[in-house]
Design brief:
Structural class: alpha/beta
Shape: elongated
GO molecular function: ATP binding
Helix content: 25-40%
Distance between the termini: 57 Å
Order of helices and strands: EEEHEEHEHHHEHEHEEHHHEHEEHE
Strand content: 25-35%
Keywords: Amino-acid transport, ATP-binding, Cell membrane, Membrane, Nucleotide-binding, Translocase, Transport
Pfam family, one: ABC_tran
Radius of gyration: 25 Å
Number of helices: 12
Number of strands: 14
Strand order of the largest sheet: 6-7-8-3-9-10
InterPro entries: AAA+_ATPase, ABC_transporter-like_ATP-bd, ABC_transporter-like_CS, ACT-like_dom_sf, MetN_ABC, MetN_ABC_transporter-like, NIL_domain, P-loop_NTPase
Protein name: ATP-binding cassette domain-containing protein
Length: 342
Amino acid sequence: MIEIKNISKTFHQKKQSFKALDDVSLSIEQGDIVGIIGFSGAGKSTLIRTVNLLERPDKGQIIINGKDFVQLKSKELARERKKIGMIFQHFNLLSSRTVFDNVALPLELDHVGSSEIKRKVNELLKIVGLEDKANDYPKSLSGGQKQRVAIARALANDPYLLLCDEATSALDPATTQSILQLLRDINQRLGITILLITHEMDVIKAICNHVAVIDKGKLLTKGTLQEIISDKEHPVIKQFINPGVMTIPQELNKKLQKEPKDGLFPLVEIELNENITVETLLSKIHDEYKIPYKLLKADVEYLGDSNFGKLLLQLKGEAEENQKAIYYFNQNKIQNTVKGYA
C-alpha cells in the first residue's frame, strides 16, 4: 500500500514562486496499475518524483509499506529507493555500455557477484524480449528497444513499485502499445505495482485500473477508468475523454445542405454515454420508432458494461418521425448534433 498524504510542493525562482502540488492525497493498492493524467505543467512529474523523494515535498507524507519516506534518514532512504524502479521518457541509457552492461549497472552498484549478475541480467533480457541484443550498444537500438532496456534495468533490484514518467511519449503508436503490453505483463507476472504519469488518455485506457486527474497542482478526481470517464461535466476531464468531431464522408459532405429540404435526410452526430448501449439506441430508432437509418460512422469503446464514443447516423424517415428520434435523444440526455441534410 502506498499512501500519498497532503503533499504540497512550491518551487522558488528568483522573485517568483510556483506551487506545483497543492495538498495532494492518493492511495495506491499493492499490485495495482494507477495512471495520473494531466496537461503539461499540471504537476504530474513533480508528484511521481515525490514518491521516491527525488523531489522532497514541503509538507505531507509518503507512506510506503508503513514507512514515511519523508522521515527516513539518508542511508535508510537510499536502501528503500533500491526497491522502487523508475523509467523515463528518454530512456537514460549509457551509450558507452552494452545492453547487458546497462541492465547490470544497478547490480554492480549494489556489489552483486558477477555470476549472479549474469544470471539476473539474462533473465531480465528474456522478460523484455531482448536476449539477442545483450552485446549491442544503445545507438543500434530502436526507441522501443531502448525503453525495453530501461525497463529491464529498472527491474534489476526486484522492485515492488515501478514509476513510469511519460515512458511512452517519445514512441510511435505501435511501439507504445507493445511497451504498455510489456508493463501489463510485468505487473501480472511479477506482481509489481505500477504508477505512471501521462498526458494521453489512450495510455490510461490501455493499461490502468485506476486513474487520478491532476490540474494546476490539485488532484481533481480519482477512481476507476469507468468512473472518471463518466464525469464528463468537468472541463479538464472533458478535454481528455472527448472523442472529437466525426468527419463526414467526403462524397456525402459535398452534397450536404445546412437547411432541411424535401428529399434530404438529417445527419446526426450522437455522443454515447454509459446509460445506453449502441444496440439499445439503434433498436429504439428502428424497432420502436420504425425509422430507417444509415450508420455512417462509429467510434465506440467498451469499458465493462458501458460504452462511450460517437455515432454518425443518417435518419431516413419522414420529417416527423426523424424529429421523434431527436426528441427521444434529448429526453434521455443523449447529446446529439444535426450536422446537415443530404
